[in-house]
């Protein structure tokens, strides 16, 4: 795995409940190894998917900027964020990272960071 996952890419910790009085440690066996949470391979796949979505959002953002020249970049990035939420392409935990990455690719990061909703 040559690709580096950025430190700010979200880790997903899943909670689980098992009935009984005794304390339990919930683990999964993957390739004869026990894991708590996701493996690095699973995290890499999530990262690659989010990166692809961010690249697609970049293209959509460029199109929106040409189509609506009077709209501010902040308004455009909020439209992208709303569309991403509606489509449910990425996990809720990944939405903010994906939009920030798209904004970074567009050079609009300042517009997203200024948003009162974040």
Report on this model:
The chain has 118 residues and is mostly helical. The chain has one domain (28-113). The chain has helices spanning 40-67, 73-87, 92-106, 109-113, and strands at 28-30, 33-35. The chain has a two-stranded antiparallel sheet. A hairpin with a 2-residue loop joins strand 1 (28-30) and strand 2 (33-35). The chain is elongated, with a radius of gyration of 18 Å. The relative contact order is 0.15. The model has no long low-confidence stretch (mean pLDDT 86).
- The termini sit apart by 32 Å
User: What's the average pLDDT?
Assistant: 86
DSSP strand count = 2
- Tell me about the biggest sheet? 2 strands, antiparallel
Report helical residue fraction: 40-55%
Radius of gyration: 18 Å
- One letter per element, helices H and strands E, the order comes to EEHHHH
Q: What is the structural class? A: mainly alpha
Strand order of the largest sheet: 1-2
What is the strand content? Answer: 5-15%
> Given the structure, what is the number of helices?
4
How many distinct domains? 1
Low-confidence stretches: none
> What is the overall shape?
elongated
Key phrases:
4 helices; 118 residues; 2 strands; mainly alpha
Lay out the secondary structure.
Elements lengths: L27 E3 L2 E3 L4 H28 L5 H15 L4 H15 L2 H5 L5
Antiparallel strand pairs: 1-2
Helix pairs in contact: 1-2, 1-3, 2-3
Brief sketch in words of this structure:
This protein is mainly alpha-helical and 118 residues long. The protein is 53% helix and 5% strand. A hairpin with a 2-residue loop joins strand 1 and strand 2.
